[in-house]
Design goal:
single chain; about 190 residues; alpha+beta; 10 strands
């Protein structure tokens, strides 16, 4: 089993133990060919770890039942494709859509106009940096070195209590501990 899949299972274990309703909101994974067919219209390549993520689970059912990250929904592939069109065409930086170092982006997590995305490339790469596209700014911000490092950050934050459930059952975070864990798994990222 890959590091990414082991890490996703750690996260799912935490969710099943602490918030079983949220854990149950994840949709079954897709077969490799289903993912390939779904993203064929992009005319670009997604990183290999993206395929691994969507073979594990095809997003979650409903943002109200998602604790994959404190405020983000893991998008089903059909929703991610719709979001991809929006950030590539309708919402623009210099009228050309959101790009990172000249490459188009493909979102896979969202919440109220904020997105996490991977880089589309002409040749499939094993990994991609994860780019944050905040709704409040007309910019893109690299925040994780890969989907794997993102999930390693999340898993450790769940397991160490940097992410925790408050008295009302909502997920919160200790910002200092989250930042320290993020630096541990993403040393190349400045912030």
């Amino acid at each position: 089993m890959s590091v990414l899949l082991e890490t996703l299972e750690r996260i799912m274990g935490w969710l099943q133990q602490h918030t079983p309703t949220h854990a149950a909101s994840f949709r079954p994974g897709l077969r490799y060919n289903e993912i390939l067919e779904a993203v064929g219209s992009l005319h670009a390549e997604l990183p290999s770890e993206f395929f691994e993520l969507y073979q594990w689970r095809n997003g979650s059912e409903d943002e109200q039942h998602t604790l994959f990250y404190p405020i983000m929904q893991f998008s089903p592939i059909d929703a991610a494709l719709m979001d991809s069109e929006w950030i590539s065409e309708d919402r623009s930086v210099e009228e050309g859509g959101f790009k990172y170092q000249g490459y188009r982006l493909f979102p896979f997590m969202c919440f109220e106009g904020d997105y996490y995305a991977v880089v589309l490339n002409s040749v499939r790469q094993p990994t991609s940096p994860v780019i944050w596209i905040p709704k409040a700014d007309n910019q893109v911000i690299p925040c994780y070195t890969s989907i794997t490092s993102m999930m390693l950050t999340f898993a450790e934050c769940y397991e160490t209590g940097a992410y925790y459930l408050n008295e009302q059952g909502y997920l919160e975070q200790n910002i200092q501990e989250v930042a320290q864990t993020s630096r541990k798994y993403n040393p190349e990222i400045a912030n």
